[in-house]
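Lab notes, practical 5.
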Amino acid sequence: MQTCEPTYYILTLSQVCSLSPVILPLRSLQSLSSARPSTNGVYGPSTVFRWNRLARTDSRLTLFSRRVQTEAAVPGEEKRKNRIPVTWKSLGIATVMAGALWGTMMYLKHEKEQASAAERQKQIGKAKIGGEWELTDHNGKPRTSADFHGSWVLLYFGFTHCPDICPDEIEKMIKTADLLEKERPENKVQPLFITVDPDRDSVPAVARYVKEFSPKLIGLTGTTEQVSKAAKAFRVYFSSGSPDADNDYIVDHTIIVYLIDPEGKFVDYYGQTKTAEQMVQQIEGHMNRFSYLRW
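Output from the prediction step:
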């Protein structure tokens, strides 16, 4: 049987280095540098390498060289690998988180409004304010309190000969109704004026008076008994002063705007110190609470 002997090659140092495009490992260079050439300039057997081993080393070095060149050619590759890709899934998660945050804010706002309304109700107490009444509007049409069920009602008691307080309070009531109509169009708000001077405030007199403020304002009058019943239901005090030489007199009365809910129940009241904006803020709280309890 014939045995194949491994083939050896006698290489010079320059021939070995030309086999690889990059520097050989330090260990191989040390082996070559420590070798001593023979008299004819050729390295001896101690520096002989198997060709297949040298070829494998050269292949690994070549691949390593190409890898270094590739990574050096794309300096921003590592930064792009660290970036988080934007996908539909990430957008969906962000949307859900934003919705949860918005829901939490709305819940906290609702809780604050509920606490404010509860505190206000505690201040008002459980006084029996409000009730049924029957009067005549400024168009001569009979009206009852039930006609306004389904609407939020702002109610003010006054008289048409009032010099300044009544006009100021009615204008504030109309402004409040306008602001609520703009911010809460789903809630109808009806302003009402009931006279406490039925002897002078006839239907035509009330009609002329309410037209000076707003077409949405409804004026109401009636007999002395009818007006007294409505005023008593809302705990409104009124008293006519002594007439002067021209038979003119002033009526002293309670200066309050009442808030009545769509079921005809008294909810809150607002004095002269309240602005229209403050009234709107509190009324919106009552509207939210009314809707929440019936949701």
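Observations recorded by the TA: The chain is about 45% helix and 15% strand. Confidence is low (pLDDT under 50) at residues 6-13, 19-35, 41-68.
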